[in-house]
Structure to design on (296 residues):
C-alpha cells in the first residue's frame, strides 16, 4: 500500500520539476514505482518476410515467432494485415494471440498530419479512426502515429497547428474506444524533442501521449538527453539496437535507454524494433536475450 502523504509528496515534486522546465509540455503521466517493463517485438522487425507473399510469413506466424522467443508481447503493425480486413479476421487473430499466451502490445499506422491538402489530411484522419476501431477489437492499448514533415514554404506555426488539430480529433475519438495514441519521435517536425513536445503541449485531448523510440533522434549530438526529455510523456516505448548522434551510427547502449525509461517511472511495453543489417532471424534472438534481463 502507498501512503497518501508519500504519494502527494511525490506528486508535488513532479509538478515542481515540470514548472521549472524551460520547455513546458503536458504534465507527465502519474507513475508508480518501481517501473515495470514488458518485452515485445514489433512486426516491422520481420518486414522483409511479412511483405513477401511467398515467404510463408503472416501475422499469425509472427505471433508464433514471439511465442518461440519466449516474450509476452507482439506489436501487430497495420502494414502487414491483409488488404481486406474483416471483423472475423481480427477476432481470429486476437484469439490466436490468446492461445499462444501473447498480448498485443500495440499497433502502428501510416499518416501525415502536417500536410496542407485538406482532402488528404481528412483522409488520414479517417484512416486513423478506422484503425482505432480495428485495434480496439484486437485489444491493443496503444497505436503509434506520426506527425509528418513541414511542407515547403509553410510557416512552422501553421504546420504545427494543423498537426495539433488532427491529433486532437483522432485522440478524442480514440478515447471513446479505450485506445491511446502515441505521437512518435520520427523525423520531420518531431526530429528533436523540442518540436515533439511543442506539439504535445498544445494537444488538448485525452488518450494522447508520446511513442518513445530510442533510435529516431538523429539530428542531435546527444539523443539520450532528448529521450530523457520525452520519457515522462510516453505511453508506449520502442527500443532499437542502433542510435545516431549527429546522424552517425553507433550501437545503442541498451542499459542506458532502459534506465531512462525507469528513471521516468515508465511502466508498460518496450518493443524491440529491429532495423540493423544482420539478418533478422539470426540477430533478433540474440538481442532479445540481452533485453530480457533488463526488463526484470
Amino acid at each position: 500500500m502507498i501512503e497518501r502523504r508519500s504519494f502527494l509528496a511525490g506528486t508535488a515534486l513532479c509538478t515542481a520539476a515540470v514548472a521549472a522546465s524551460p520547455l513546458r509540455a503536458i504534465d507527465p503521466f502519474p507513475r508508480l514505482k518501481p517501473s515495470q517493463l514488458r518485452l515485445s517485438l514489433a512486426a516491422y522487425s520481420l518486414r522483409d518476410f511479412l511483405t513477401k507473399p511467398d515467404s510463408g510469413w503472416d501475422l499469425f506466424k509472427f505471433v508464433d515467432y514471439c511465442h518461440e522467443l519466449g516474450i509476452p508481447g507482439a506489436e501487430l503493425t497495420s502494414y502487414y494485415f491483409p488488404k481486406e480486413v474483416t471483423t472475423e479476421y481480427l477476432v481470429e487473430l486476437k484469439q490466436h494471440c490468446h492461445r499462444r499466451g501473447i498480448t498485443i502490445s500495440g499497433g502502428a499506422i501510416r499518416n501525415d498530419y502536417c500536410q496542407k491538402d485538406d482532402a488528404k489530411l481528412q483522409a488520414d484522419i479517417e484512416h486513423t479512426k478506422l484503425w482505432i476501431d480495428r485495434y480496439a477489437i484486437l485489444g491493443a492499448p496503444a497505436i503509434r502515429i506520426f506527425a509528418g514533415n513541414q511542407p515547403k514554404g509553410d510557416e512552422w506555426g501553421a504546420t504545427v497547428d494543423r498537426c495539433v488539430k488532427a491529433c486532437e480529433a483522432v485522440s478524442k475519438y480514440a478515447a471513446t474506444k479505450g485506445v491511446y495514441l502515441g505521437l512518435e519521435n520520427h523525423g520531420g517536425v518531431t526530429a528533436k524533442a523540442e518540436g515533439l513536445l511543442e506539439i504535445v503541449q498544445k494537444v488538448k485531448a485525452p488518450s494522447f501521449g508520446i511513442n518513445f523510440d530510442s533510435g529516431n533522434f538523429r539530428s542531435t549530438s546527444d539523443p539520450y538527453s532528448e529521450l530523457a526529455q520525452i520519457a515522462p510523456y510516453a505511453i508506449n516505448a520502442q527500443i532499437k539496437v542502433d542510435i545516431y548522434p549527429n546522424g552517425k551510427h553507433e550501437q545503442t547502449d541498451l542499459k542506458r535507454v532502459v534506465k531512462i525509461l525507469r528513471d521516468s517511472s515508465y511502466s508498460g511495453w518496450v518493443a524491440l524494433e529491429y532495423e540493423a543489417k544482420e539478418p533478422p532471424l539470426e540477430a533478433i534472438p540474440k538481442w532479445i536475450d540481452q533485453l530480457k534481463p533488463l526488463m526484470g
Observations:
- Strands lie at 37-42, 73-75, 103-108, 142-145, 180-184, 208-213, 234-239, 242-243, 250-251, 268-272.
- The chain has one domain: 36-295.
